[in-house]
Write a structure and sequence with these properties.
This protein is of the alpha/beta class. It has helices at 114-126, 144-156, 170-181, 196-203, 207-218, 259-264, 290-296, 302-315; strands at residues 4-7, 10-13, 16-19, 21-29, 32-37, 44-49, 61-68, 71-77, 83-87, 92-97, 101-107, 130-136, 160-163, 185-189, 228-232, 242-245. The protein has 3 domains: 21-77, Beta Barrel (OB fold (Dihydrolipoamide Acetyltransferase, E2P)); 83-245, Rossmann fold (3-Layer(aba) Sandwich); 259-317, Ribonucleotide Reductase Protein R1, domain 1 (Orthogonal Bundle). It has 8 helices and 16 strands. A 5-stranded mixed beta barrel has the order 4-5-6-8-7. The longest helix has 14 residues, at 302-315. Residues 87-252 form the CP-type G domain. GTP binds at residues 136-139, 190-198. Keywords: Cytoplasm, GTP-binding, Hydrolase, Metal-binding, Nucleotide-binding, Ribosome biogenesis, RNA-binding, rRNA-binding, Zinc. Zn(2+) binds at residues 276, 281, 283, 289.
Length: 321
Amino acid sequence: MSRITRHRGTTAVAGTCTASEPALIVAAHGRHYVVELQDEARSRLHAFPRGKKSDCAVGDHVMVERAAADQCVIVEVRPRRNLLHRSDQFKSKLLAANIDQVAIVLATEPGFSEDLLGRALVSAEALALRPLIVLNKIDLTERLDEARKRLALYRELGYAMVELSVHAAPDDALAQLKPRMAGAATILIGQSGMGKSSLLNLLIPGVDAQTREISAKLDSGKHTTTFTRLYHLPEDWGAGGCLIDSPGFQEFGLHHLSEGMLERAFPEFRPRLTQCRFYNCHHTNEPGCGVLAAIEAGEIAPRRHQLYAQLLHESRQQKPW
């Protein structure tokens, strides 16, 4: 059996030395990753984590060691600025690391889930990320007024919002999104059917070819056609910008957020938190609660408090890990 000696940046095996090199994770499905090296060609390799544990996310900066001509091993995850993930009582799903902005894609048709929108906003607030609400398909006018009415609350709360139609007015859509995304790392999230794929095709030239390349690296024919992936924004947008596309989903659990994180993730709650009679107020049924008083006065929407109460209930469920 070969003796393995670890040094910083190298692994020595039976007298040979394999240097580690920096890379960026640009796609992920389960324990299968694609990393992009920092060479001039931005070479991409199929990667897998060392050991059984897999805790990497798209957007992570890592150190890798070559294992074959087109494969490598992830030996280290560099410190993150942040990590966006969703979770329930039993499992956690890593979405993306080192991001600046969460773009929540909605549409007039089919109808969007306000619960998912609220949860995505709470998740962004908890990480101090910029949320951007994107209402797509505004050319389908039959339900446009209804969608705007449902979103009026979030405008009043100060959330950035754009209305567009990728299919009917792509130039206008691009003009609205470019200044909001240039130079930033943005993740697109949303339910299936909201038009994320069309939006991606608009923003990333040649996205189909890039997707096929990543699919081949992940060998998705044996696994799945849905995976999280990172695309660099066009160079003329400015340096450093990227777009992370995640598979559509119907649930957004925030089981990992503590009660303190939850109450501060509702911006309309924050000014009232110091108005509670009790320092450990849960803002559910306590007397002298500043949040409940604001609801009674019509200053906080009841449906926002209902979401808070549901998330608080979920966070209190026993965690098996």
